[in-house]
Amino acid sequence: MLIWKLYYTFLFIIGLTVGEIKNKGWWKNEVFYQVFPRSFMDSNGDGIGDLNGIISKLDHFVDSGITAIWMSPIYSSPMIDSGYDITNFRDVDQIFGTIHDFEKLVQKAKKLGIKIIMDFVPNHTSIKHKWFVKSVNNIGKYKDYYIWHKGRENNTKPPNNWIGVFGGPAWTYNKKRNLWYYHQFDYRQPDLNYRNYKVEIEMKKILHFWLRKGIDGFRIDAVPNLFENDDLLDEPLSNLKGYVDGEYRYHDHIYTTHDSRDYEIVARWRKILDEWANYHNQEEKIVMTEVYTLSFKAVMKYYNYGSHVPFNFDFIISINETLNARQYKNVITRWIANLPSDKSANWVTSNHDTGRSASVDPIRPNIRLILSLILPGISCVYYGDEIGMENNFNITWEQTQDPQACRTDPKTYQKVSRDFSRTPFQWDDTMNAGFSKARKTWLPVHKNYKILNLKNQKFEPESHFKLFKTLVALKKSSETLKSGSLITDTLNNDKVLVVSRQSSNESIVFIVNFSDDVSQNVNLNKYLPGAVRATVIISSVGSNIRWGTSIKVPDVELPPSIMLLLTSITVEST
Ligand SMILES: *[C@@H]1O[C@H](CO)[C@@H](O)[C@H](O)[C@H]1NC(C)=O
Ligand SMILES: *[C@@H]1O[C@H](CO)[C@@H](O)[C@H](O)[C@H]1NC(C)=O
Ligand SMILES: *[C@@H]1O[C@H](CO)[C@@H](O)[C@H](O)[C@H]1NC(C)=O
Ligand SMILES: *[C@@H]1O[C@H](CO)[C@@H](O)[C@H](O)[C@H]1NC(C)=O
Ligand SMILES: CC(=O)N[C@H]1CO[C@H](CO)[C@@H](O)[C@@H]1O
Ligand SMILES: CC(=O)N[C@H]1CO[C@H](CO)[C@@H](O)[C@@H]1O
Ligand SMILES: [Ca+2]
Ligand SMILES: [Ca+2]
């Protein structure tokens, strides 16, 4: 008896100490859905989305087949920069609810099989964060939590020529300390000083705080901005056309972005997550990194420094309505070509800093969404993409919220504002699109909501939402989409894009007519080898080609502008 008891105790101890990371690689073919909490669902009628709103809409994720969401910041914040200016990394802002609501959200989501990923904003805090207040007052260790420096010309000018991302000097003078502090973004978002190891320890404790709450990983904000050059050297001119002094792109940011230490700290954060999952026998925790750059080398390097998902922003930046089939093909193939061989590709449709995916090419509104769901690897979608929500440019100067726009003027704000892709989710055709019972919402609802809304699209036999749902389900079930080969081609003088996935017994092929006035005859023999008929999985919403029908192949007549996703099962001939 005693022997057995000891034996089980021994096994129990082994189980506790020799942990393991469970379900490794669960994210490799995942669809990640970005929730912008302010605009998702308002539960208490103040016109601003909140955590209880998200809880009330968890069934939408279940219905869509979404099993992982990442949320833009919900931390305490004066909301100068939509919550990217944080006063307390360990609490939820009252506009979103309480930490208790957050716990409820995680618990309910877990039950439904939905993973929750938090936005982690390590580069800076709010000017109102107690660390900064103490830093300004020269109190103890907080003195060096931020980047302070004496100015030039007897302290009357900023220490160097660095420009902030939102425009204007990246330095602001503080009377109390009689020094300048550095801020990569708004002057109300002072940068933390990562050369001070104490700051890194603070951040580790914050990661642990949220891991204890049961979250599944972090999306890390503004990674290339973490470290700056130690000697504060002036940055050279970019010589890019169309930019004037004071604008961010007027300079080449070699001393404020892509410091080698940015990579190393991401690797250390990944290690913290791995150790946690390992120690607690939990599923693998994920790291997603936000890195805007035109250099593939710089982005891909993050794969080797712990990032599971270095966001593929090339897929956003390089795609616009002027592209032809060949340019689309290039955007796809160059990511794949640069991808380290053992890593998962990812495709980002849009986010809160870019225009909405459906507005990029109004004639082919779902093209980027479809591609993200059929290409190998991970799809990252933005709230509203699933119903084809469009940019809302009807936001007045008075209604404008984005700090990047607020610092301009009523004539030019539209050029830089990011508000147009942050408007409330369009649930149905009732007041405020069903988003809120308030008289006024924080940003105006797009006026097309009476027609363009989720409720309508659930009723229509073929809609953006049905298309999304169909493809998410296919992505989860199809071995061909998970591990099949990829061919990307253009046909008919770059008028037609072909993206094809093949496994031993199935072919899936996506074809797009980039001509808006001429039908294209395409031969699909190469992509549907031996097939005489193929099934239409989906076609452009509103086209005359019905979903689920069977069409004759390999010769297909593709009407102008139309997109078609076909599948054929290869039947073994006996
Ligand atoms: C520099 O500034 C200080 C404080 O404002 C002032 O007392 C001093 O005269 C200035 N020196 C020069 C050289 O301008
Ligand atoms: C569209 O994208 C292409 C290729 O990425 C680029 O060369 C072109 O300047 C872009 N056009 C517009 C209007 O942004
Ligand atoms: C813009 O919004 C206002 C209400 O804020 C509305 O009256 C007007 O019709 C809208 N105009 C367009 C072009 O959408
Ligand atoms: C294709 O083959 C795989 C493995 O051989 C099998 O699991 C799958 O069900 C087949 N798919 C179809 C559509 O027949
Ligand atoms: C894409 C993204 O999340 N960008 C954010 C980067 O960080 C700045 C400052 O925190 C935000 O304003 C952006 O929205
Ligand atoms: C000229 C033409 O046929 N245009 C069609 C292009 O495709 C869209 C749908 O994707 C149709 O609405 C247009 O009628
Ligand atoms: Ca609310
Ligand atoms: Ca920084």
Automatic annotation (TrEMBL):
The signal peptide stretch is: 1-19
Q: Which Pfam families match?
A: Alpha-amylase
Keywords assigned by UniProt, alphabetized: Glycoprotein, Glycosidase, Hydrolase, Signal
Q: What class of enzyme is it?
A: hydrolase
Alphabetical list of InterPro entries matching this protein: GH, GH13_cat_dom, O16G_dom_2
Reactions accelerated catalytically: Hydrolysis of terminal, non-reducing (1->4)-linked alpha-D-glucose residues with release of alpha-D-glucose
Q: In what residue span(s) does the Glycosyl hydrolase family 13 catalytic domain sit?
A: 34-422
A GO BP annotation: carbohydrate metabolic process
The record's EC number reads 3.2.1.20
Keyword Hydrolase assigned: yes
Gene3D superfamilies the UniProt entry points to: Glycosidases, Oligo-1,6-glucosidase, Domain 2
What GO terms are given for molecular function? alpha-1,4-glucosidase activity
CDD domains given in the database record: AmyAc_maltase
> Which family would the database say this protein is a member of?
Belongs to the glycosyl hydrolase 13 family.
This chain belongs to the protein called: alpha-glucosidase
Gene for this protein? LOC105364024
